[in-house]
Design goal:
Blueprint: E1 2-5, H1 20-28, E2 32-36, H2 47-52, E3 56-58, H3 62-67, E4 70-72, H4 79-82, E5 90-93, H5 101-110, E6 113-116, H6 131-148, E7 170-174, H7 178-189, E8 193-198, H8 201-211, E9 215-219, H9 222-231, E10 234-237, H10 252-255, E11 263-266, E12 287-290, E13 293-296, H11 306-327, H12 329-335, H13 337-340, E14 343-346, E15 349-350, H14 353-359, H15 366-370
Parallel strand pairs: 1-2, 1-4, 2-3, 4-5, 5-6, 7-8, 7-10, 8-9, 10-11, 11-13
Antiparallel strand pairs: 6-14, 12-13, 14-15
Helix pairs in contact: 6-7, 11-12
C-alpha cells in the first residue's frame, strides 16, 4: 500500500503522523511511504532521517492526497486539506466529528474511509489511541492552568502549591478518567488542594485509593459540582463521552458565583467543550475572559510538546496502521473488531452512532460497510 504523511497545518501543530521509526516499520513491510518535506521538523526529524528509513520525500501535500491510498495524520483535516481527499481514500487520524458539522459534511461528500483514532477501542472498552494524548493533555492542563492563574495573565495571582504559612490553590478536576487522573497527579504533585468529581462510584473508589490523602473525591451531582467549582482557583474539565459531544457541566450562570480571576481549562474542547462558555482557542491566543473567569480552551494542547506527544501517539497508532496496510481496511477490521470501532465515515455514510445522532445523520452500522 502507498501511505502518505503530510505536514500538519493546524495552528501551532508540530506533531507528525509518522516518526522515522514508524516509516521504517511500514517500509520493511513492503509498503511505500511518502512524507511531505519538512513534516517532521516539529519533532526534530529531518527529511534525511525519513529517507534513511526508506521513505520517499515529496514536495507539498498535493502528491500525498492525490496518489496515496492511506493518509496518516494527527489532527483532523483542515478545510484546505479536505478539498484534496478522494473517494475511497483511507484517512487515519483524530477526527472529533460530533461537534464539527462542517468537517463531517466534507468527509461524507468526499466519500473517504475515515478512521478516527479517538473511537478505536481496546479489550475492556478503553480508548488506547486516545489514552496517550489524554495523558499528555491532563498533565499539561495543570501547567496551563497554573500559568493562567498568574496575575499578569488575568488570573487570581495564586500559586497552586502555596508556600509555608499560605494555603495552596484549590484545583477541581471534573472527571476521573485518563485526563482527570493525570491532571490530579500533576496538581497533587505541586502540593495543590485537589478535588476530583465523577459520577461512577468505581472511578471514585479507584482514584481515592490511589491518591489517599493527597486528593479528595466527591460524587458529581449538580449541588456538589456547583459548590466545588465556586470554591476553586482552577477547574479542569476532563469529561469524555466517546465519539459524542461533551456535556455542558459548568453553565454561564455558575461563573458569577466563582471567584474573580479563577481559571477554567477545558480539555474536552475537541469534543465541543464541557463548559457552556467554552470556545476553541489556539496556542497563539490561548485564553479569553468571560464574567471575570479566565478560559483556556486550546484544541490541540499536546501539539505544544510535539516530540513527546508524537512518539507516544505512534506507539499506539502504528500497529493498526500496519494491519490496515498489510490486509486492507476491511479485512483488518473483520479480524479486529476494536479497529472497526474507529470507522466513522465510509462511502458517504456516517458509521459511528454517536456522531450520527449528534449531527442528524442516518446511522449505518459498521457491519454493513464490512459486508
Amino acid at each position: 500500500m502507498r501511505i502518505g504523511c503530510p505536514k500538519e497545518i493546524k495552528n501551532h501543530e508540530y506533531r507528525v503522523g509518522l516518526t522515522p521509526e514508524s516509516a521504517r516499520e511500514l517500509a520493511r513491510g513492503g509498503h511505500e511511504v511518502w512524507i511531505e518535506s519538512g513534516a517532521g521538523l516539529g519533532i526534530d526529524a529531518t527529511d534525511e532521517e525519513y529517507e534513511a528509513a526508506g521513505a520517499r520525500i515529496v514536495d507539498g501535500p498535493d502528491p500525498i492526497f492525490a496518489e496515496c491510498e492511506m493518509v496518516v495524520k494527527v489532527k483532523e483535516p483542515q478545510a484546505d486539506e479536505r478539498t484534496k481527499l478522494r473517494e475511497g481514500q483511507i484517512l487515519y487520524t483524530y477526527l472529533h466529528l460530533a461537534p464539527d458539522r462542517e468537517q463531517t459534511v466534507d468527509l461524507v461528500n468526499a466519500g473517504v474511509t475515515a478512521i478516527a483514532y479517538e473511537t478505536v477501542t481496546g479489550p475492556h472498552g478503553q480508548l488506547p489511541l486516545l489514552k496517550p494524548m489524554s495523558q499528555v493533555a491532563g498533565r499539561m492542563s495543570v501547567q496551563a492552568g497554573a500559568t493562567a492563574l498568574e496575575k499578569a495573565h488575568g488570573g487570581r495571582g495564586v500559586l497552586l502549591g502555596g508556600v509555608p504559612g499560605v494555603m495552596p490553590g484549590k484545583v477541581v478536576v471534573i472527571g476521573g478518567g485518563v485526563v482527570g487522573f493525570n491532571a490530579a497527579q500533576m496538581a497533587a504533585g505541586l502540593g495543590a488542594d485537589v478535588t476530583i468529581l465523577d459520577r461512577d462510584p468505581e472511578v471514585l473508589e479507584r482514584v481515592g485509593t490511589h491518591f489517599e490523602s493527597r486528593a479528595k473525591t466527591r460524587f458529581s451531582n449538580a449541588a456538589n459540582l456547583h459548590d466545588a467549582v465556586c470554591q476553586a482557583d482552577l477547574v479542569i474539565g476532563a469529561v469524555l463521552i466517546p465519539g459524542a459531544a461533551a456535556p455542558k457541566l459548568v453553565t454561564r450562570e455558575m461563573l458569577s458565583d466563582m471567584q474573580t480571576g479563577a481559571v477554567l481549562v477545558d480539555v474536552a474542547i475537541d469534543q465541543g467543550g464541557c463548559f457552556e462558555t467554552s470556545k476553541p482557542t489556539t496556542h497563539d491566543d490561548p485564553t479569553y475572559v468571560v464574567d471575570d473567569i479566565v478560559h483556556y480552551c486550546v484544541a490541540n494542547m499536546p501539539g505544544a510538546v510535539a516530540r513527546t506527544s508524537t512518539y507516544a501517539l505512534n506507539n499506539v497508532t502504528l500497529p493498526h496502521a500496519l494491519q490496515i496496510a498489510d490486509h486492507g481496511w476491511k479485512a483488518a477490521m473483520r479480524a479486529n473488531p476494536h479497529l472497526a470501532e474507529g470507522l466513522n465515515v465510509w462511502d458517504g455514510k456516517v458509521t459511528y452512532k454517536a456522531v450520527a445522532e449528534d449531527l442528524g445523520y442516518e446511522y449505518v452500522p459498521v457491519e454493513k460497510a464490512l459486508a
